[in-house]
Design a protein that fits this description.
heterodimer; A: mainly alpha; Amino acid/polyamine transporter I; 2 strands; globular; B: alpha/beta; GMP Synthetase, Chain A, domain 3; 2 domains; six-stranded mixed β-sheet; 11 helices; 29% strand
Chain lengths: 369, 383
């Protein structure tokens, strides 16, 4: 078992941060494109679907509570099968990390550091990830607290500043949805937003000091997160109008460009957008830390030197791919930025479900025999 | 080890300084104009010169206007770098002149360029100049503001709120109306008064009665073919009342041979129910007596009621003229189509039919405005 201990509050903050991993680059543009002014229907249904996902998550989390997800796999499956499953899972999480950070880096390179070489932007973003990998989940928990505190302050500032520009008539027509588009946006939302939070299964339940409060903490965190997401959608659509929201790659950034407080606080979008930079960097760090834990469990890497080797083993290919992919925003931008992460998250979700179901069967079989 | 990595991480934070530009290397763009000549885009750029105003006024012009030409807008802008060594910084641009030569199908290219540019904000104003060369307007200096671009921007905003015959429209609002169903953007028209050749002469600023300045003219819309639709003063008032752009505007009405003026304190007018093809325009205007030249003492309640009634007729007339112009020109700059799209979804198929030609001409408007007078200035009645 891992040595660190975290509180249920810190755990739920990590959970909350991970829900934000793909909002800026994937969810906001896609949902607004698909659902248009009926985004609130998609969000409402997604909220209910999210509760089902949390129910499933808690079931898996409470199953073998002293073990992290890799140890659970190891306990359920034969040695070589567990290694293959763990490696597949790590590969999929690696892909999520690449997509999240790639979206962040393309955002930065296209909006701020236009003339900076890709190599330096890649290094700029990857360096904190590498640094975070040197630590464990208790430190990442403190990072989550910091990220969410900054995010909360910036979100409040942005919402209050933009409120004077809200035009409720931009929410109309209210009922222009069809089942096909709403269904598609709910599926994408459910998998792309909720599944990254499942990565917290890498923390064993017994490492949470007050685990009895966990369910309540997660539900509160989830509800607050969904309210925040709803608020951001509301601000984007009412301030920009659905037509403008639809044409931009990053509508949540463009809306901040209109920010003007008392006619003299202007052009602050580069500070306000920090909220997404922090949350996406956090999500990337968590994914890489997930993989580091996987390698550690899989190959019993307890020595410091071997751990550094595992970190480099994950980090160097990650950095290489990010720097290689960076210039290709234009080719991957259209639909693959949604379909690829959705499929990866679906696969991860499917794997967790299968692991859990087989785990129950194996447990029952063990009890009978 | 961890500290060393932390220090290295912090060093990487300086990547934003890569290829940094000193302030002296920047050409700060305060206004811009896009036009087309001989099928080529022409960009005129007003750049700010950093000058100090001393005891004897401004020693040199506070602005420079540079022009470029190209097959695309981007080409035209970059071609200016053949004449000037500065790197253009356009984040703080105050306004953009969209010339009548680019209001046809070229407008889509203009919108695409402005929306795509990551450095531009969405808050600059859009204006047009139907009578003058945009370059002359950009080159004109102001007696009241060292930065002529700020002067024009303030002028447009002030005349909207204080007078009511103009309107300010930001790029965000323009783009939203350009992309939306059932509405066409309306922009303020600005013109040069006086001799064009004197407008950019800083010597004229030293005279107290300079006859060269930029003035806000009436509002302008463009039809689907890019033709200019000029809203006269009454129609401009009507447009602004209909869109609730008037804050402290003034409404002058006739009482017999004389006139009185009401200053609006609050105005809220909008579309209401649709019955058959009849769309209601309803709302309330609250105001105070600003000027009274009529017969009959204002301490008599009946006279006050009469003023309210006459003001109501004037505002109704403004709106009626605006609505009629929109129907005549088959250009929905009044936003009736957009209101129906949002509130009576399904009434008209905006995807398959042309609202301006098949929808708007068939709509009748029923105007019902309430006018309430709340104040009458310092006097109890009249002198």
């Amino acid at each position: 078992m891992n040595r660190y201990k975290i509180s249920s509050l810190t755990f739920s903050l990590i959970f909350m941060c991970l829900l934000n991993s793909s909002l800026l680059g994937i969810i906001f543009p896609y949902i607004l494109h698909e659902s248009k002014t009926s985004f609130y229907i998609s969000l409402g249904i997604s909220f209910l679907v999210g509760l089902v996902f949390i129910f499933i998550y808690l079931k898996i989390f409470n199953f073998l509570p002293d073990k992290d997800i890799f140890e659970k796999i190891d306990a359920i499956f034969p040695k070589w099968v567990s290694k293959i499953i763990s490696l597949i899972l790590m590969s999929l999480v690696f892909m999520i990390a690449v997509i999240v950070i790639w979206r962040l880096v393309t955002f930065i390179s296209s909006e701020f550091l236009i003339e900076t070489p890709n190599l330096f932007i890649g290094l700029l973003i990857a360096a904190p990830l590498f640094y975070a990998m040197l630590y464990d989940f208790d430190v990442i928990g403190r990072l989550a607290t910091f990220c969410l505190a900054v995010a909360f302050i910036l979100l409040m500032f942005n919402v209050i500043s933009l409120f004077s520009q809200v035009d409720i008539s931009n929410l109309k027509p209210l009922l222009n949805f069809d089942l096909m588009h709403t269904g598609k946006s709910v599926i994408v939302f459910a998998f792309v937003v909720f599944v990254p939070a499942f990565l917290t299964l890498v923390i064993p339940k017994e490492n949470i000091s007050d685990s009895t409060k966990l369910t309540k903490s997660i539900l509160v965190a989830y509800t607050l997160e969904m309210i925040s997401i709803g608020l951001i959608f509301f601000i984007i659509v009412t301030v920009l109008g659905i037509e403008i929201s639809n044409i931009y790659t990053f509508p949540s950034y463009v809306v901040l460009k209109t920010l003007s407080v008392l006619s003299f606080i202007q052009n602050t979008e580069n500070i306000s957008i920090l909220v997404w930079v922090l949350l996406m960097t956090f999500s990337g760090s968590f994914c890489l830390l997930f993989m580091k834990t996987g390698l550690k469990d899989l190959f019993n890497l307890d020595k410091k030197k071997t751990q550094i080797f595992s970190i480099l083993f994950i980090f160097l290919p990650f950095l290489g791919i990010i720097i290689y992919m960076l210039p290709y925003e234009i080719y991957l931008n259209k639909f693959k930025y949604v379909s690829v992460p959705t499929l990866i998250n679906m696969s991860i979700f499917g794997m967790f479900i299968i692991i859990y179901l087989i785990g129950i069967i194996v447990n029952k079989f063990k009890r009978i025999t | 080890m961890k500290k060393l990595i932390l220090v290295l991480c912090m060093v990487l934070m300086c990547t934003g300084c890569w290829n940094y530009k000193e302030l002296t290397e920047l050409g700060i763009v305060s206004a811009m104009a896009i036009s087309k000549k001989d099928n080529k885009y022409v960009i005129d750029m007003q750049l700010v010169n950093i000058v100090e105003a001393g005891d004897k006024g401004v020693p040199e012009s506070p602005i420079s206007v540079m022009s470029g030409e190209g097959d695309t807008i981007a080409d035209a802008i970059r071609s200016i770098n053949m004449k000037i060594s500065k790197v253009f910084f356009s984040s703080n641009m105050e306004y953009m002149i969209i010339d009548k030569s680019v209001t046809d199908e070229s407008l889509e290219e203009v919108m695409d360029f402005l929306a795509r540019d990551t450095k531009l904000s969405l808050n600059f104003l859009i204006v047009t100049s139907t009578n003058d060369d945009p370059k002359d307007v950009l080159a004109a200096l102001s007696q009241f503001n060292l930065n002529p671009a700020s002067n024009v921007s303030e002028l447009v905003k002030r005349s909207e709120g204080r007078y009511g015959a103009s309107t300010s429209i930001t790029f965000k609002e323009f783009l939203a109306k350009y992309l939306a169903n059932g509405v066409t953007p309306v922009v303020p028209n600005i013109k040069l008064v006086g001799e064009v050749s004197d407008a950019d002469d800083s010597e004229t600023l030293k005279e107290s009665d300079s006859n060269n300045y930029v003035e806000v003219d009436n509002l302008v819309a463009f039809d689907e073919e890019g033709n200019v639709i000029i809203l006269e003063t009454d129609e401009s008032f009507g447009y602004n009342f209909l869109n609730n752009h008037i804050q402290n505007g003034s409404v002058t009405s006739q009482c017999g041979d004389n006139y009185f003026t009401i200053q609006t304190l609050k105005s809220k007018i909008g579309y209401g129910d649709l019955k058959g093809n009849k769309l209601k325009i309803e709302g309330e205007v609250q105001g105070e007596v600003f000027f009274y030249g009529c017969e009959g003492n204002l301490n008599n309640e009946k006279n006050l009621d009469k003023l309210a009634k006459l003001t109501k007729e004037t505002i109704t007339n403004y709106i009626k003229k605006t609505v009629n112009l929109a129907k005549e020109t088959k250009t929905d700059f009044i936003g009736a189509g957009n209101y129906l799209y949002k509130n009576e979804y399904g009434y008209f198929d905006f995807d398959k039919k042309d609202w301006n030609k098949e929808g708007l001409p068939n709509i009748d408007f029923d105007i019902d405005i309430e006018v309430t007078l709340l104040k009458q200035g310092n006097l109890k009645g009249d002198i």
